Amino acid sequence: MQRCYFSEFKSSTLLHRARIATLFFISFVFSYVLFSSALDSCQIRFPEYLVSSSLSFDSLSVRAETTLETVLKEASMNDNTVILTTLNEAWANPDNSILDLFLASFRFGNQTSKLLNHLVIIALDQNAFASCKRVHTHCFALTTDGVDFSHEAYFMTPNYLKMMWQRIDFLRSVLEMGYNFLFTDADVMWFRDPFPHFYPDADFQIACDHYSGNSTDVETNIPNGGFSFVRSNVRSIEFYKYWYSSRVIYPDLHDQDVLNNIKYDSILTDINLKLRFLDTTYFGGFCEPSKDLNKVCTMHANCCVGLENKVHDLRIMLQDWNNFMALPNGMESQTWRDPKNCSLALRRHLDLSEDGMKVETIT
Ligand SMILES: *[C@@H]1O[C@H](CO)[C@@H](O)[C@H](O)[C@H]1NC(C)=O
Ligand SMILES: *[C@@H]1O[C@H](CO)[C@@H](O)[C@H](O)[C@H]1NC(C)=O
Ligand SMILES: *[C@@H]1O[C@H](CO)[C@@H](O)[C@H](O)[C@H]1NC(C)=O
Question: How many domains does the chain contain in total?
């Protein structure tokens, strides 16, 4: 087609240009094919979204920029802070809804319902978006062509990893738009306002599966990406770019485990990122529950395998909280019941993963 078009002009310059263009095109296609087949034959596990989805994600984010900007602006606090969570169809399913439990916790919590005004739910598929619209004001649809995030993404499956990485990339763009964010998984129950407990001087602060007692010690704390507060500045933006780029070096690792690897990297010192780990006394979870219901802000359903177990044990957690709130002051000796179904399933999961090869962190 192109050749016919150009030869009609019979212009030698045009013909020359066309030849160069064709040659360029052919060599591009050739090297692409060579590259792809090399990847296939060497079994190099190059995440497909690197090649395809990230392109469509970029073009989508350009189109959606105004909408995201509008949603963030409407939900933002005076100091440009938003609360963000992601939601897929499996977690929005009304029969078994993590979303319902999440929103209920804000209402049962002590003075947390006002924070719902600042919560943006990032829907990862159309059904999650529809579910969000039914129950919440600030919803944003982040969809990636060709990737279906609607089902329960089992820990460490390719879809799970894609979902995790897309989240990192998305959060980077939120920072670039000038918003600080508190990211919370939807399986984190909110019982008190967390903001008074953040470090005023930190760029990036993150909750932990295990907290060692020293908020600056990267070696002994085990962070969990399901709850973090990040201030928008050059350091945090650089950090998120670096974190996202590390997926190429660690293609089989979960974002959190990559974080556990890169937290030692000298680049963090070069960026001068101020990193803090949050105390499980305030930001606890099934892995390490907050021991004091008079202090707890949030509780995460970490160390749990399986959506049904999660929902089952979160319901019990909400009951425990409501029992605590119903007690007269001074009689507050209430504690959490053990997350039985979660821990049973986790033990089974760890046994299956064999030979002492421990799965380090389960969200
Ligand atoms: C709830 O918050 C109010 C105001 O901060 C405080 O006076 C009250 O003691 C809190 N109740 C509980 C159970 O923490
Ligand atoms: C906390 O950890 C940091 C970094 O490892 C270390 O420099 C500091 O001495 C520790 N603080 C305490 C009180 O142990
Ligand atoms: C939770 O565990 C109990 C006791 O083992 C069991 O009867 C129940 O069916 C489990 N619930 C779910 C939702 O798995």
Answer: 2
Question: Do 139 and 177 share a structural domain?
Answer: yes
Cβ–Cβ < 8 Å for 141, 170? no
Q: Atom 3 (ligand 2): residue with closest C-alpha?
A: 217
Q: Which residues contact 275 (CB under 8 A, 6 or more apart)?
A: 202, 203, 204, 205, 206, 216, 218, 263, 268
* Residues 54 and 155 reside in one and the same domain: yes
Listed residues 240, 262, 283: the one ending a domain:
283
Ligand nearest to the CA of 297: 1
Q: What pTM was estimated for this model as a whole?
A: 0.78
Torsion angle in degrees (nearest 10) through CA of 275, 287, 85, 175 = 10
Range of the domain at 34: 2-42
| Atom number in ligand 2 closest to CA 215 | 1
Q: Is residue 249 part of a domain?
A: yes
Same domain? For 125 and 229 the reply is yes
36 with 56, same domain?
no
- Residue 312 domain-assigned? no
Give the residue whose CA is nearest to atom 3 of ligand 1: 110
| Beta carbon of 78 within 6 Å of any ligand 1 atom | no
**CA 295–ligand 1 middle distance (angstroms):** 10
What are the b/e assignments for 70-103, b being 16+ CB within 10 Å? Answer: ebbeebbeeeebbbbbbbbbbbbbeebbbbbbbb
The pLDDT tens digits along the chain (363 residues) read 333 333 333 444 444 444 544 444 444 444 443 343 333 333 333 333 333 333 344 444 444 445 899 999 999 999 999 999 999 888 998 877 899 999 999 999 999 999 999 999 999 888 999 999 999 999 999 866 555 555 555 544 556 667 777 888 899 999 999 999 999 999 999 999 999 999 999 999 999 999 999 999 988 999 998 999 999 999 999 999 998 888 778 777 666 677 777 777 777 788 999 999 999 999 999 999 999 999 999 999 999 988 999 999 999 999 999 999 998 875 666 789 988 899 888 788 777 654 433 343 444
> Does 67 sit in the ligand 1 pocket, CB within 6 Å?
no
- 36 and 58 together in one domain: no
Shared domain check, 158 and 30: no
What is the position in ligand 1's atom list of the atom closest to the CA of 329? Answer: 13
Of 283, 304, 334, the residue at which a domain comes to its end is 283
Q: How far is the CA of 279 from the centre of ligand 2 (A)?
A: 15
Ligand 1 binding pocket includes 333 (Cβ within 6 Å): no
